[in-house]
UniProtKB/TrEMBL annotation:
Localization in the cell: Cytoplasm
Protein's GO biological process: regulation of translational fidelity; tRNA processing
Stated name of the protein: Threonylcarbamoyl-AMP synthase
Pfam families found in the cross-reference section: Sua5_C, Sua5_yciO_yrdC
Top-level division of the source organism's lineage: Bacteria
Chemical reaction(s) catalysed: L-threonine + hydrogencarbonate + ATP = L-threonylcarbamoyladenylate + diphosphate + H2O
UniProt record similarity statement: Belongs to the SUA5 family.
GO molecular function: ATP binding; double-stranded RNA binding; L-threonylcarbamoyladenylate synthase; tRNA binding
Protein function: Required for the formation of a threonylcarbamoyl group on adenosine at position 37 (t(6)A37) in tRNAs that read codons beginning with adenine.
Keywords, ordered alphabetically: ATP-binding, Cytoplasm, Nucleotide-binding, Nucleotidyltransferase, Transferase, tRNA processing
Binding site for L-threonine: 38, 70, 124, 184
Length: 348
């Protein structure tokens, strides 16, 4: 398929005209990649099962993995759900538009292809001017997962989208790098108290400030608590770079010793080694390809950089990547969740 590629930086006259053109493709049942504040999304008309199927094919996504439906104003939600729980309304008022997906009971308008057969649907109102204008022009809610090939790190830059989806979708809107760099926080509003299913930029503490009690799914917490880490060798293919990624645990000194020892074992071997460090610890290493995720003082910067750094290792042909572990707290939960998944929960 020939993919139409357009670059839009602002919604000036030229930008709006270009956006109109690609939004028209949605009405024709086609797929379009668009930027959001979290990561790039691969969208189609959420009411059109045939269009939605094209998303799964383009990504190579298993069809039991539901899609998030994106709207361009709160009023659009009414017809998509069986009812808006009062607590969901509270969260919309505080966090929308923004990186928060609310799971609610779906209405009959949402096809099974979107919800993967579940009776619930995830809905988000993104805070990105191009995403919002695009959804409005399309005239339909937009079902959209991240715009990567299934298993790969989510795309935070236009070039990542081109790598993964050029030739597989009708159009790609290229724009600036995404601000947040991790996918939205997902919270199940059908449960009481509500349960965070996926951590993101809206933190658990922020949700608790609004709602009081909020639980975090065991799928998230079990995998970040070291003693409860899943059986070794259990390999997920989520957010993964092509190289073999391992998380290195311990105190700062232990981590750098472990990594330096490991790297020295590869000395003289034709294997390319990468180290994912931080601004503060880069100086501890002298061999291998050393890349910083950002400053430890700024977890949001590290989160923003994670997926693009993993793809940088790929571009440079790195085969083995040692990533320093990150201290767990409210601000780092989402980053750690993605990093551990990318490593398939492999630790040394
Ligand atoms: P992606 O945007 O590619 O990260 O994919 C959307 C993700 O949202 C899915 O993988 C699920 O984790 C979550 N999600 C979407 N809809 C639902 C739902 N109805 N119930 C639970 N989780 C959902
Ligand atoms: Mg995804």
């Amino acid at each position: 398929m020939k993919t139409k590629i357009i670059a839009i930086e602002s919604l000036d006259e030229t930008g709006l005209k270009a956006l109109e053109e690609v939004a028209a493709l949605i009405k024709k049942g086609e797929t379009v990649v668009f930027p959001t504040e979290t990561v790039y999304g691969l969208g189609a008309n959420a009411f059109d099962p045939e269009a939605v199927k094209k998303i799964f094919i383009a990504k190579g996504r298993p069809n039991d993995n539901p899609l998030i439906v994106h709207v361009s104003e709160i009023a659009e939600v009414d017809c998509l759900v069986a009812g808006i729980p009062p607590k969901a309304k509270q969260l919309m008022d505080v966090f929308w538009p923004g990186p928060l997906t609310l799971i609610m009971e779906k209405s009959a308008l949402i096809p099974a292809e979107v919800s993967a057969g579940l009776n619930t649907v995830g809905i988000r109102f993104p805070d990105h001017p191009i995403a919002r204008a695009f959804i409005k022009m399309a005239g339909y809610p937009i079902a959209a997962p991240s715009a990567n090939r299934s298993g790969r790190p989510s795309p935070t830059q236009g070039k990542h989208v081109l790598e993964d989806l050029d030739g597989r979708v009708a159009a790609i809107i290229l724009s600036s790098d995404t601000e947040i760099g991790l996918e939205s926080t997902v919270i199940d509003m059908t449960a009481e108290p509500p349960v965070v299913l996926r951590p993101g930029d809206v933190t658990v503490a922020e949700l608790r400030e609004v709602l009081g009690e909020v639980l975090v799914s065991a799928n998230v917490t079990e995998n970040v608590v070291p003693e409860k880490v899943l059986s070794p060798g259990m390999k997920y293919t989520h957010y993964s770079p092509k190289g073999d990624l391992v998380i290195v645990k311990g105190s700062t000194t232990e981590i750098s010793e472990k990594i330096n020892n490991a790297v020295s074992r590869y000395r003289g071997k034709p294997l390319s080694i990468g180290i994912l460090a931080s601004d503060e610890t880069m100086g501890c290493y002298h061999e291998g390809l050393i890349i910083s995720l950002g400053s430890q003082k700024d977890p949001r910067e590290m989160a923003k950089n994670l997926f693009s750094r993993l793809r940088t290792f790929d571009e440079l042909g790195v085969e083995k990547i040692y990533a320093e572990d990150i201290a767990l707290n409210n601000e780092t939960l989402a980053l750690i969740n993605r990093l551990y998944k990318a490593a398939g929960y492999t630790f040394i």
